[in-house]
Design brief:
- The chain is an alpha/beta fold.
- The protein has two domains: 2-217, Spore Coat Polysaccharide Biosynthesis Protein SpsA, Chain A (Alpha-Beta Complex), CATH 3.90.550.60; 229-287, no CATH class.
- The chain contains eight helices and twelve strands.
- It has helices at residues 14-25, 65-83, 102-113, 172-177, 191-202, 234-251, 256-272, 276-287; strands at residues 2-10, 30-38, 56-59, 88-93, 96-98, 119-127, 133-135, 137-141, 146-150, 160-162, 167-171, 205-217.
- The strands form two sheets. Strands 1, 2, 3, 4, 5, 6, 7, 11 and 12 form a nine-stranded mixed beta sheet that branches. Strands 9-8-10 form a three-stranded antiparallel beta sheet, covered by helices on one side.
- Helix 1 (14-25) links the parallel strand 1 and strand 2 (30-38).
- The termini are far apart.
């Protein structure tokens, strides 16, 4: 039986975290070591306790999604060194709820796809609350400066395939290559694509999207972080463009002149539409 570490970042809305933990408690076929990182100013992360499920709660200040996950990763790294029993770590949004056997299916997909010396990232399939497909993952097209949400279509071969960060499993090779750390320069957005690029530069990588491991995901429920710009809060919009600039600085600097031009056009269009707050968010995010 596989043993998986699970990191759930809590930021307000304890009812979401409680629902997330309750679904984890029902998972079968895997052993879980669950870390809840309480990133909220109120320190109000709920705790689910019974004889077989007792998540460990870490308190930290809100320095972003990557920073919060890193607190959990360091705790699990210590556990892995001491117990030598982890097979991988799942990063799970508190607004993502694992359906029946989802974690077991992710673990099987990870072991089926890993080869000696290969890093593996496995993503779950995200559903809306009505059961309709939300996304299988994403694909970022660097030359176009945009991404696409994957539904049933194949991804473009010239794009960066990545699992949704709402439910992504990393094997130990991947974690060791990353030194058990996400890039804390990203407060919100682009963590998944950045992790793919970092791992690819460090050695062979397999990215796999498992359509059978399903999670109900209340997209943007915690941070107002919808996929499309008009679904995002203005604060999240600013973080999106700040992270986008960092991603291109680190991985695709040759495309930066084109990105400057595209973002100037985006600002112009939003001003024409009267979206002054969103135009300012793009300016602060990409050029601030």
């Amino acid at each position: 039986m596989l043993t998986l570490g699970v990191i759930v970042v809590h930021f307000g809305q304890p009812e979401l975290t409680l629902r997330c933990l309750s679904h984890l408690r029902l998972q079968e076929g895997v052993r879980l070591k669950v870390i809840v990182v309480d990133n909220s100013p109120q320190g109000d992360a709920p705790l689910v306790k019974d004889s077989g499920f007792n998540p460990f709660i870490l308190r930290c200040s809100n320095k972003g999604f990557a920073h919060a996950n890193n607190q959990g990763l360091q705790e699990l790294r210590g556990f892995c060194k001491k117990e030598n029993s982890l097979d991988g770590v799942l990063l799970l949004n508190n607004d993502a709820f694992a359906m029946e056997d989802a974690l077991h299916k992710l673990g099987i997909a990870m072991t089926r796809n890993q080869r000696p010396g290969w890093a593996v990232m496995v993503g779950g399939c995200l559903l809306n609350e009505d059961g309709s497909l939300q996304t299988r993952g994403g694909c970022w097209i660097p030359s176009h400066g945009r991404g696409m949400v994957l539904l049933d279509e194949p991804h473009p071969t010239h794009g960066i395939l990545y699992p949704s960060g709402a439910a992504v499993l990393l094997n130990l090779v991947a974690l060791d290559r990353l030194d058990w750390q996400l890039d804390e320069g990203y407060f919100l957005y682009f963590e998944e694509a950045d992790t793919v690029e970092r791992l690819r530069k460090l050695g062979p990588l397999q990215v796999f999207l498992d359509q059978n491991a399903r999670f109900v995901h209340l997209q943007g429920a915690t941070a107002g972080s919808g996929k499309r710009h008009h679904d995002r809060s203005i604060r999240s919009e600013c973080h999106f463009h700040r992270s986008k600039r960092r991603f291109y600085n680190l991985h695709y600097p040759a495309f930066l002149p084109k990105m400057h031009l595209l973002h100037a056009l985006v600002v112009f269009k939003r001003l024409i539409r009267g979206e002054f707050g969103r135009a300012q968010a793009v300016i602060r995010g990409f050029w601030g």
